[in-house]
Records
---
Amino acid sequence: MSKYHMLWMYVQNSGKQQLMLSFDEIEKIEGIPLDHSFLKYKKELCAYGYEVEKISMKAQTVSCVRK
């Protein structure tokens, strides 16, 4: 199972066209803080029908969009 499986399921179950989550929200959903490995794992989101559109370090947000 993926390190970010709970997050991917959350995004998929949202049913939204676009979803923006803060780093804090991701930590609450997944139970672990977002770290540099997220860059490697973000490709897995494609299997759930979404992709990571943008990661903002300044705003501390991740934007996901339905493919």
---
Amino acid sequence: MNELICIVCPRGCHLHVDEAQNYAVTGNACPRGAEYGVQEFRCPVRTLTSTVVLRGGPHRRLPVRTSRPIPKQKITDAMAVINQLQVEAPVRAGQVLCQDISGTGADLIATRTMEII
């Protein structure tokens, strides 16, 4: 039996996941906690946030995130792509900067609008 703290809501339930019983989850106060417990042990995912180089804008870096959570084991691959990426201003919040980053099915999107200086 494995333990983890649920991060779906502020309650922070202490979940117990029993892999031997087909990932049975106990300790959750809501159905979302049970889903999180199963997901975390079968294929954990995270929304990746970072910054990329911005040229021609008011700041040197542009904040970005993935459009949806990606598998945790793909984060290093996605960060390698992000670290090489450079974008030119102007950029609009929500603009797709890289489609299907590292084969995850998620797009890399800008989270802030940056105008040309």
---
Amino acid sequence: MTEHVLKKEVNSLRGEYSKNGVVVIKNAVNSYWLEVLRKAVELQLKEKKRYFDNRNMRMQSGGFKDFCLNSGIGRIVADLVNSKTTSLVFDQMFVKEVGTKTRTGWHTDQPYWPILGPVITTWIALDHVDDENGALEFIPGSHHWGKKYHPFITDQLGAFVKYMKPDDPQYDEMPDFEADRDKYDIKSWSLGPGDMLAFDGFIVHSAKGNQTSTRRRRGYAVRFATDGATYDPTQGVANWLEDENLEPGAIFESEKFPLIYNKN
């Protein structure tokens, strides 16, 4: 897909993103960058880290940093929400190997992070992704509910273990979305390699397990802060995202959280 056609598609998705909190952008990543990311993922898998600890990948060996800085991903995000800037929060890889049947628990992302204001995750499929090998599921519009659900600790494979700060009044009690699936309009999409999900930091989502015996599910996520996002260390539980060089209330941009795209 050419840059012109991609930009036109992204602009056409702006209203859908605002309403639903999630969109699919087809063919967002070309074959060159797909190969860069696949090689980088395979290199990092040798480290055998816990599922959710494969984060800040741009600081590791491989082509993650090159992708974040030079692929144009920041501009796609800016176009989608009509933002003048995008700053990189962090990047992360998610690999569900064959037979990893554990479901990633229902959650929202932003309550983990020291950020107020809009944050977008881009989740790039590096393989074919469908219901059988671990498709992500979303409750469209849930980012408008005004809820800040409890962050939680997971096990090695991403399943729920316990809440973090269970008595903190800033967090809302999380419903059992899985037990009450019929009450919600749950959406998921099959993705081809290079297709990308873009979703809001407060949308409720989960991911199915990999039920297959032959197909891996490799995904790569990059989180961006856009216009209006500010730093607030009283929010969230991810201490590793705190930045002593940022004052509370400052625009979410620093050496640790570099500006990736600036329209001006």
